[in-house]
Inverse folding.
């Protein structure tokens, strides 16, 4: 049992870090734009397919695919913002409409990936050498350790960006009070486009890591990651990137420990119980502030 | 009430495709066989793959002049309507096939869901229906009189070949895990029954929910249970993740069995797939001594000839549907009639007397298919080889499999 618990803690931390990254871009988008991106999982899986194409077509290993994915998805996100978002602002209820619109984007993205890659599961035949490292009595996957290191690095960079740079501070200000930030002369449209592009780039990077850690994905895998992202975002507090990072790790640990003590089938119920419990007991999430009217 | 479908939705594959056959055959009324095919929806790919198998059979039987009934050779017409993968549409479309298109007998649609929806209609109208892809045992527990599964083995039997193969290899302890959905659950429950009946100890039986991404703890539990062999059953994506995590956690079992491990997309994961055991119906290495219809190589040849522009290669759905056609031909020849009761009697009489592309045919009075067992393969360094059943074996199993650290 001790071995299982140790495995659960180590894997909970690592898998939780990936969950955190899945959630952080979604919460960033919601915080700045009040956009509920139901297609977030499809963006993540598009990142996995991006890495797959680079690896199988050009022989680019997944680690090198990370910066390429970041740039490509940032550019795609910037363009997508101007296609999708300005129209939402003309709606009576932009938040609800964003949910419905991105539901449509989710279906469209999945259908496009189906068209391009068919329904079969795909994987990247790439593994690190050695494939795992022995840490005391347990084996830890090298890919997972690499994913953990990258997640920590990205989180640190994101924290520096949000708290130490002017655009980052502007983003946080936009999350707190979008009206006030316009009064002081910030171009909110440009800032929003940047936030959308940044969130899309993070989703793309997450997709590459997902392809390394959970090495099978298909056109319909996105929904599973969207659900994880929503649990993390609600637990961390809507629109709170730091909360999402913490929530991802908490969710990962809770899920893993549940599988140690309960049948594996109940692990997901634990995730949803956390979601429902958070909404009932602490609707602002672990680090969230009270919801704005 | 029959639904109105656009005329173009009705496609008839007529005997006219082949000019061969005697004058009597051309004059005789064709045998009309109805079926629905999903042009859209979740079952579209599999249904159309199966349709191509049925069309190969129609082409073959008509090229031989048709099926003799009462001394007259009658060609076969396949009457196809669209079911859109929708179980609420299926009963209406089968009603249309029977009442408007006046078909003589029917092939089932793809899968258990649609077949269960179709069978009430065919039974109510006293029509004989041949099932080619539905594995749900429940279909055969309803007391239907005129259904026969020609090639598709019942769900609870699907996991048994693997267990039988392991029993022959001397396995004593086996751990099971499965995705909590009907197909993996039925397969695993059947496999567990078989394991117990063969005197094996089932050291673990645990299910996991759809969407589970991390199987590390599940693997550790299976290892801690002391199992010789681990048999996790899910769809290919989950199985590919488990295969990687087995290697990452250095979890050495004497054998690991994944249903889909010999499929091309699974083999693409490289080293993770080495030495895994799996099962399938259609593979270059599985060649039954066929007594009815074409053999595997001949069917593949016809597939290439008839469907040069098909987006996908022939798969086991193609083989199942082709094999069902070959069985139907024997049933009609035996019955010398298209009456549902006579066809069912003939189907039962032929039990254990036919071998088709997918293996031996054996049914009971409910129409449930007991044979057509999947062959068990193992991924050897040179590619998958058949290790069970003995009739089609191509290599000796490697058991216990080499530990991960000793693999190149």
């Amino acid at each position: 049992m001790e071995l299982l618990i140790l495995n659960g803690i180590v894997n909970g931390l690592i898998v939780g870090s990936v969950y955190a990254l899945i959630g952080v871009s979604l919460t960033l988008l919601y915080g700045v734009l009040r956009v509920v991106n139901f297609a977030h999982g499809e963006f993540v899986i598009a990142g996995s397919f991006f890495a797959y194409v680079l690896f199988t077509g050009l022989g680019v290993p997944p680690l090198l695919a990370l910066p390429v994915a970041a740039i490509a998805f940032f550019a795609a996100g910037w363009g997508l913002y101007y296609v999708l978002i300005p129209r939402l602002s003309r709606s009576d209820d932009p938040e609800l409409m964003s949910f419905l619109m991105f539901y449509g984007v989710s279906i469209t993205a999945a259908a496009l990936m189906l068209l391009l890659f068919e329904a079969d599961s795909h994987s990247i035949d790439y593994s690190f050498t050695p494939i795992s490292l022995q840490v005391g009595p347990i084996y830890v996957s090298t890919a997972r350790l690499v994913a953990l290191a990258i997640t920590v690095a990205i989180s640190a960079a994101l924290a520096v960006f949000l708290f130490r740079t002017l655009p980052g501070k502007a983003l946080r200000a936009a999350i707190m009070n979008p009206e006030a930030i316009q009064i002081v002369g910030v171009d909110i449209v440009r800032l929003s486009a940047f936030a959308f592009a940044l969130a899309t780039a993070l989703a793309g990077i997450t997709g590459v890591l997902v392809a390394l850690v959970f090495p099978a994905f298909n056109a319909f895998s996105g929904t599973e990651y969207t659900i994880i992202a929503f649990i993390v975002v609600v637990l961390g507090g809507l629109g709170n990137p730091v909360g999402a990072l913490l929530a991802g790790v908490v969710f990962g640990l809770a899920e893993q420990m549940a599988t140690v003590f309960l049948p594996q089938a109940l692990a997901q119920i634990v995730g949803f119980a956390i979601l429902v419990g958070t909404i009932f007991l602490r609707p602002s999430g672990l680090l969230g502030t009270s919801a704005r009217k | 009430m029959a639904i109105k479908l656009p005329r173009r939705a009705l496609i008839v594959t007529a005997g006219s495709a082949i000019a061969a056959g005697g004058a009597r055959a051309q004059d005789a009324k064709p045998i009309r066989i109805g079926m629905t095919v999903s042009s859209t929806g979740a079952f579209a790919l599999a249904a159309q793959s199966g349709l191509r198998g049925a069309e190969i059979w129609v082409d073959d039987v008509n090229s031989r002049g048709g099926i003799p009934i009462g001394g007259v050779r009658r060609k076969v017409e396949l009457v196809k309507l669209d079911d859109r993968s929708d179980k609420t549409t299926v009963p209406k479309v089968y009603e249309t096939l029977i009442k408007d298109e006046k078909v003589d007998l029917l092939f089932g649609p793809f899968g258990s869901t649609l077949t269960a929806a179709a069978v009430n209609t065919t039974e109510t109208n006293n029509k004989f229906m041949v099932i080619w892809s539905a594995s749900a045992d429940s279909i055969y527990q309803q007391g239907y009189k005129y259904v026969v599964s020609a090639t598709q083995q019942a769900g609870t039997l699907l996991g048994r070949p693997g267990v039988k193969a392991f029993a022959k290899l001397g396995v004593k302890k086996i751990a099971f895990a499965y995705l909590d959905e009907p197909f993996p659950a039925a397969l695993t429950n059947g496999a567990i029954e078989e394991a117990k009946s063969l005197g094996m100890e089932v050291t673990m039986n645990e299910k996991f929910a759809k969407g589970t991404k991390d199987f590390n703890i599940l693997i550790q539990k299976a290892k801690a249970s002391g199992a010789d062999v681990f048999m996790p059953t899910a769809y290919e994506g989950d199985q590919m993740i488990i295969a990687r995590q087995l290697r990452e956690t250095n979890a050495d079992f004497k054998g690991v069995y994944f249903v889909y491990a010999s499929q091309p997309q699974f083999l693409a994961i490289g080293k993770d797939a080495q030495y895994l055991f799996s099962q399938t119906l259609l593979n270059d290495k599985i060649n039954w001594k066929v007594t009815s219809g074409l053999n595997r190589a001949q069917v593949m040849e016809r597939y290439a000839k008839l469907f040069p522009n098909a987006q996908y290669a022939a798969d086991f759905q193609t083989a199942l549907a082709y094999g069902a056609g070959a069985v139907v031909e024997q049933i009609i020849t035996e019955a010398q009639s298209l009456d549902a009761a006579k066809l069912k009697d003939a189907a039962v009489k032929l039990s254990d007397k036919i071998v088709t592309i997918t293996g031996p045919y054996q049914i009971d009075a409910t129409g449930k298919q007991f044979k057509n067992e999947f062959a068990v393969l193992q991924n050897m360094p040179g590619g998958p080889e058949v290790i069970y059943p003995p009739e089609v074996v191509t290599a000796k199993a490697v058991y216990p499999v080499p530990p991960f650290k000793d693999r190149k």
